[in-house]
Amino acid sequence: MPDRALADDPLKLVGFGDSLMAGYQLQGEEGFPAQLQAALQQRGHDVEIIDAGVSGDTTSGGLARLDWSIPEGVDGVILELGANDALRGLPPETSRENLEAMITRLKQRGIAVMLAGMLAPPNLGTEYEAAFNAIYPELASKHDVLLYPFFLDGVTGDPALQLPDGMHPNANGISKMVENILPVAEQFLAEIKAP
């Protein structure tokens, strides 16, 4: 873990993901990193969250840009990738390998990882669904990283919380996601601060 001796500095996190992290069609302050930062600050945490979301990104794309997207001095990364892999029906084993490589690389740099899980759309069949959905809990367990099981929990299937495309959250949807993930995010901060 990075040296926390300079406790005056805010904890630096990076939200590393795809359009769900980047706040597709939303204003900057409506996106997930900004709303989560505000919610954590309201609860007394000195934290800064950098948005490193890229719309359309896959786990392969994330792996390719990982090193230059995560600057030195970062304490933790919320890793949210895989939705576009599933939408494109990419092999789950490839997604798993890419996510595992990212977790390994970040941990080697002394950066804590929180994994934000994704679920495959049901139209890809039960076999694909089972293989894909198992990736996140298995990697979290294997690498001893915190897992938030489903990033879109509480938003999927609720038109009031989604953009007209029925896939991306609107600003209220992001607020719901932040509300749901807050306890795990606070646990993540506590783990980073622990000596």
From TrEMBL:
Residues 16-173 form the SGNH hydrolase-type esterase domain. SUPFAM superfamilies: SGNH hydrolase (SSF52266). InterPro entries: Ester_Hydrolysis_Enzymes, SGNH_hydro, SGNH_hydro_sf. It comes from the Bacteria. It holds the Pfam family Lipase_GDSL_2. PANTHER family: THIOESTERASE 1/PROTEASE 1/LYSOPHOSPHOLIPASE L1, THIOESTERASE 1_PROTEASE 1_LYSOPHOSPHOLIPASE L1. This is Arylesterase.
